[in-house]
C-alpha cells in the first residue's frame, strides 16, 4: 500500500512538472502539441501553427459551413427560378389564348351530343355547357333561356358560347352517375386552355337557373366581359334617362298647347 501510494505521488508530481513546463515555455517545442489554454476555443492558438497551417485551419473550419449553406440555398433558389419561369410561361400562354379567343370564329349557340364535346373543349372560347334531357320539364324550360343568353353574349361582344348537350343517347356509363338524366339540366362552365391551367377545366354551375346568374357566372371568367356589361348598363341608363326627358318634354308641350 505504501509503495503504491508513493508511485501515485511520483506520477502526479511528474505530470504537474510536465504541465508546468508547457506553461512556463509558451511557443516552445512542447507547447505546440499541448492542449489550448482556453478549452472552449474553436481554433488553435496562432503561435502554435505555421502560416500555412493557420490558413488550412481556417479553410477546414469554414468549408463545411459554406457547403452546408450552398446545399441549403440551392433548392430554394432552384424552386424560385422554376416558379418564375412557370409564371412567365403561364402569362404567355394566357396572352396567346386571349389573342386566339379574339380572332377565332365559333358558334355562340350549339346543340350537340356527348361525342361532340371534344370539338367544344378544343376551341379557344369559354363555353357554358348545359347537359339536358328532352324528357324533363326543366330542360324544356332552360333550352330557350340559354338561346336568349347566347344571343345576349353575341350582342354584347362577350366571347363565350352556349352548348346544349343531349343526354338521351351516347353517354358513357361512368358519366351517367355524375350526370343523371332525371336531374337534368346540369350546368358547367368550360375554361379553355391557359384559363383553367395547362389543360381545359370545368367549373360546376350551382346557382339558380336564371339568365342573370348564368351571365354573371360566365362574365366572371371571360376577359373583358365585366367591362362590356358595365358599358351596356351605362348605355341603358342613358337611354332610359333620355326617354324620361322626352316624356317630360312631351307632357310639358301638351300642357302648353292646352293652355
UniProtKB/TrEMBL annotation:
Assigned keywords, A-Z: Membrane, Transmembrane, Transmembrane helix
Compositionally biased tracts (Basic residues): 234-259
Regions that span the bilayer: 55-79
Region listing for Disordered, in residue ranges: 229-259
Protein name according to UniProt: Putative transmembrane protein
Amino acid at each position: 500500500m505504501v509503495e503504491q501510494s508513493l508511485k501515485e505521488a511520483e506520477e502526479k508530481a511528474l505530470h504537474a512538472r510536465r504541465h508546468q513546463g508547457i506553461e512556463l515555455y509558451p511557443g516552445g517545442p512542447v507547447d505546440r502539441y499541448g492542449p489550448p489554454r482556453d478549452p472552449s476555443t474553436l481554433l488553435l492558438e496562432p503561435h502554435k501553427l505555421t502560416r500555412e497551417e493557420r490558413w488550412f485551419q481556417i479553410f477546414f473550419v469554414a468549408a463545411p459551413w459554406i457547403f452546408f449553406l450552398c446545399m441549403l440555398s440551392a433548392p430554394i433558389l432552384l424552386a424560385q427560378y422554376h416558379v418564375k419561369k412557370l409564371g412567365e410561361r403561364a402569362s404567355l400562354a394566357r396572352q396567346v389564348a386571349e389573342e386566339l379567343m379574339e380572332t377565332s370564329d365559333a358558334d355562340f349557340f350549339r346543340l350537340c351530343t356527348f361525342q361532340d364535346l371534344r370539338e367544344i373543349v378544343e376551341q379557344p372560347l369559354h363555353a357554358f355547357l348545359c347537359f339536358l334531357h328532352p324528357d324533363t320539364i326543366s330542360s324544356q324550360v332552360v333550352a330557350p333561356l340559354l338561346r336568349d343568353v347566347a344571343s345576349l353574349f353575341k350582342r354584347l361582344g362577350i366571347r363565350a358560347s352556349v352548348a346544349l348537350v343531349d343526354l338521351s343517347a351516347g353517354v358513357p356509363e361512368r358519366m351517367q352517375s355524375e350526370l343523371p338524366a332525371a336531374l337534368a339540366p346540369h350546368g358547367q362552365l368550360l375554361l379553355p386552355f391557359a384559363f383553367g391551367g395547362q389543360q381545359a377545366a370545368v367549373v360546376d354551375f350551382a346557382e339558380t337557373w336564371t339568365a342573370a346568374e348564368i351571365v354573371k357566372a360566365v362574365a366572371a371568367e371571360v376577359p373583358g366581359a365585366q367591362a362590356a356589361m358595365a358599358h351596356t348598363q351605362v348605355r341603358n341608363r342613358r337611354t332610359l334617362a333620355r326617354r324620361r326627358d322626352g316624356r317630360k318634354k312631351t307632357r310639358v308641350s301638351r300642357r302648353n298647347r292646352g293652355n
